[in-house]
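in:
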């Protein structure tokens, strides 16, 4: 039994487990920081404000940064830590990621995001209920004095009211934000560019997410990840938020799915057009001491007994 399990984990199932756990960590800490800002801090005697504009937004942006960073560190050595269907699709389109793995990766990401959202709900259920009672919020109500969008926002995103009923602005926002995300991911993992060493790429990808949140976050909550939004959204729907989750304000639920998938592919094409293809055309060699994207480092001695170049991957030899 143990040998069969080990063999199974050495297949694509091992990668799917890593994707599940990576995005589970991402959502647990990302949705967790929103739960802190919305419901827990102001109900715990440690603060009285909710969404005090820039202050809480910085808390949320930095919280999501750390969530992404540790999600990538957790899963990176096994699956490459896509933990985002937009990344998976873009890598299939522009980096020869096997198309046969795209749907399984996305399914694992969606399931991990759902379970991460469920953990946040389990931990913060009492704080959310207390906040709803204190603010006279009726869960499942969309609009009006009892609007439950504030507590729903712990789990998934919604468009800013200034868009009215139009979803064009939020869709453009999601395309742009995710395009930037993929440009940054490809730049940080391109061994021909200026890749970060000492395994700092996950931290810098997290900082990229923080930058997107601080610069492009207010319009639509910077989901920039279909699984990050859809998994917890489904959890919220099951937990009583009803039409606030599906179909969402003005039927919004599809925007953080379609927008990131389109934006991620656009970002990958833009990076290659302006940078990646130029580096390859110039014949720039890969950096000699940087771990390849999604490849596990394995130190091997050279034939003469000297240690191999630190950070070389099995794939590079």
């Amino acid at each position: 039994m143990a040998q069969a399990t080990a063999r199974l984990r050495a297949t694509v199932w091992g990668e799917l487990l890593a994707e599940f756990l990576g995005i589970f960590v991402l959502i647990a800490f990302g949705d967790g920081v929103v739960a802190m800002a919305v419901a827990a801090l102001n109900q715990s005697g440690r603060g009285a404000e909710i969404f005090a504009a820039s202050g809480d937004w910085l808390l949320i942006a930095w919280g999501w940064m750390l969530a992404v960073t540790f999600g990538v560190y957790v899963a990176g050595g096994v699956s490459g830590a896509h933990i985002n269907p937009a990344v998976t699709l873009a890598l299939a389109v522009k980096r020869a990621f096997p198309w046969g793995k795209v749907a399984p990766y996305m399914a694992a990401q969606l399931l991990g995001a759902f379970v991460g959202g469920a953990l946040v709900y389990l931990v913060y259920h009492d704080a959310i209920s207390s906040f709803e009672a204190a603010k006279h919020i009726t869960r499942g109500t969309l609009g009006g004095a009892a609007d439950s969008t504030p507590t729903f926002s712990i789990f998934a995103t919604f468009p800013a009211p200034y868009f009215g009923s139009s979803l064009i602005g939020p869709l453009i926002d999601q395309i742009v934000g995710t395009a930037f995300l993929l440009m940054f991911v490809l730049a940080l993992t391109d061994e021909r560019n200026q890749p970060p060493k000492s395994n700092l790429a996950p931290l810098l990808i997290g900082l990229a997410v923080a930058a997107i949140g601080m610069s492009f976050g207010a319009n639509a909550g910077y989901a920039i990840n279909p699984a990050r939004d859809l998994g917890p959204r489904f959890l919220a729907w099951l937990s009583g938020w009803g039409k606030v989750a599906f179909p969402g304000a003005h039927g919004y639920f599809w925007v953080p799915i379609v927008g990131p998938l389109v934006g991620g592919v656009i970002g990958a094409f833009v990076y290659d057009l302006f940078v990646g293809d130029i580096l390859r055309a110039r014949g720039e060699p890969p950096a000699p001491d940087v771990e390849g994207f999604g490849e596990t480092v394995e130190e091997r001695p050279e034939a003469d007994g000297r240690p191999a170049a630190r950070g070389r991957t099995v794939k590079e030899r």
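note: The domain at 10-285 is CATH 1.20.1080.10 (Glycerol uptake facilitator protein).
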